[in-house]
Design a protein that fits this description.
alpha+beta, 20% strand
Length: 312
């Protein structure tokens, strides 16, 4: 079974803690009206939920579902984290839907490349998937999860202002880490959309473009930076993102230009230089081709809208 996180719902954390069990311990029998996430730190846990039995060891996790009976079916000793959270923030998917889930994950990757930073797509269309139970393969991911849960423990113990909201935020980060580890492992398995090496090249290129968009960038520079053939990389990039490399670079520059147009008083010449366009006239033409409005009119329209919403 798999779960997808409802990104429009804030998960409510009931309580959480770390538990070190005594020897020959067995989990009590119970039915809850909320989810529980167990993450095993050491030892073994023998857990049954309805008719399904699970043997959980260090680095394993499981989501226990509301309304289902769970209990220990054999004695053991272990150390584990547990987090109880609200039942309305996850949707369940059956195992036979894995091909659909795989396609959604691939589409999610394209969406993450293409989505408008000024829009709502990252909240409304992007799906975050986690399996019901799994081993966390990445040591660094497990360490990051430990750090977040330690922060949760501190927040719970101190009860500072708005600590519940902070707990919810940290819990979402934990879900993201679990999901990323799952997706990274899934995409390495056939039938993956592309190899792990290919994904690494794409991610490295995207980081490079975001860091260097204000400078002139050539195909030769990209090829030398990544040590790959540019034409081959460009084809793989188009397959992954839906854009050619330089079209994608242009989108990055235009989005940064939109930000500068709406948040600064910079002149068009200054904005064109800071966003990597060769001159303000080329910048204006490209901007109008993309958005159907000149940069000056775009900035003016935005400021007029803001003034009407917040009159002096």
């Amino acid at each position: 079974m798999y779960f997808s996180f409802r990104s429009t719902v804030l998960p409510h954390i009931t309580f959480m803690n770390k538990c070190t069990t005594p020897e020959h311990w067995k989990h009590p029998r119970r039915i809850l009206d909320e989810y529980v996430l167990f993450i095993i730190l050491s030892g073994e846990m023998y857990l049954q939920e309805d008719d399904a039995r699970y043997l959980l060891r260090q680095g394993d996790y499981i989501f226990l579902q509301p309304g289902h009976v769970h209990y220990g079916y054999q004695t053991s000793q272990c150390e584990y984290y547990y987090i109880h959270f609200s039942p309305n923030c996850l949707d369940s998917w059956d195992c036979h839907e894995i091909s659909q889930i795989m396609q959604i994950i691939i589409d999610n990757n394209k969406l993450s490349y293409q989505c408008d930073p000024f829009g709502e797509d990252s909240y409304t269309r992007y799906k975050l998937f986690v399996p019901k139970d799994r081993h966390i393969y990445s040591h660094s991911t497990l360490q990051q999860i430990r750090l977040h849960i330690n922060e949760l423990e501190i927040l719970e113990s101190k009860h500072l202002s708005h600590y519940k909201l902070m707990c919810s935020s940290l819990f979402i980060q934990i879900l993201i880490l679990i999901s990323r580890d799952f997706v990274a492992h899934l995409l390495r398995e056939p039938p993956a959309a592309s190899s792990s090496e290919s994904h690494n090249d794409i991610y490295a290129l995207i980081q490079y473009l975001h860091l260097n968009y204000s400078e002139p960038i050539t195909g030769k520079q990209i090829s030398e930076y990544l040590g790959v053939n540019f034409d081959s990389l460009n084809r793989r990039f188009k397959r992954e993102t839906g854009y050619t490399i330089f079209h994608y670079l242009r989108q990055i520059r235009l989005n940064h230009a939109r930000e500068l147009l709406t948040t600064t008083q910079l002149k068009m010449e200054e904005i064109s230089v800071q966003t990597g366009f060769c001159d303000q006239y080329y910048f204006s033409r490209v901007f109008k081709d993309e958005f159907g409005i000149s940069p000056k009119k775009y900035a003016s329209s935005f400021k007029n809208t803001q003034n009407s919403l917040h009159p002096l």
